[in-house]
Amino acid sequence: NLALKNPRVFKIKTAVLPDVKLPDYKKIAGEMMTRPEEEITVAEQEIEGALEYLKKSRAKDGTSPELNDEFAKSLGVFENLEALKKNMRENIKLEKAVKAREKKRMELLDLVAASSQIEVPVILVEAEKEKMFSELKGSLAGMGLAFEHYLDHIKKTQEDLAKEWTPEAEKRVRYGLTLREIARTEKIEVAEAELEKETEYFLSRYLPEEREKLDLKRIKNYAYGIVRNEKVFRLLENGR
Known about the structure:
two-stranded antiparallel ribbon, 2% strand
């Protein structure tokens, strides 16, 4: 029992976010945005490869369909094979454009984070490692693989991976703190409607029975970061 004259002292260990001194991130972003964009092209081999993959996926009883106008029409939305090829070319080009944008964003973030003055707390690095393990276990589970079997396959222990992941975890924390500080400096906010939309999009990838097992608070925090970071990158790309 807790008596009035017998007080108990509770120690709570928390992580205090460090101060972050940012460089002139708008100048860094401006210099990067003025670089000439690489032309995005799609080779015929890529189209042929996509067609072959589609052909194999439509095979029945070991027999693959012919790549002709009839095959394109069987997909329901294409007039002929050329229309199908055109659609594939546009989709591949769009996918490449998205990847190019993400690559450029990461290069920009790397430059800003590297030029920022941040003392990264060990406790945040360890927390990021735990997140990385959760991501790995989730990915393995999606493929029907057990985490223990994966460790046996790569002949490593969880401690081995944790040690190897320290530099990556520290980089992720630096990135997160940098984005958070830019958002705070620029007074970037996430509206409730935006948060709900991103949360629902994330949940839509799971079956109803799987959703019940998810940590909604954690998912909302994740969704908040996604929306906020997107706003930060758009601000940097637009120079305002």
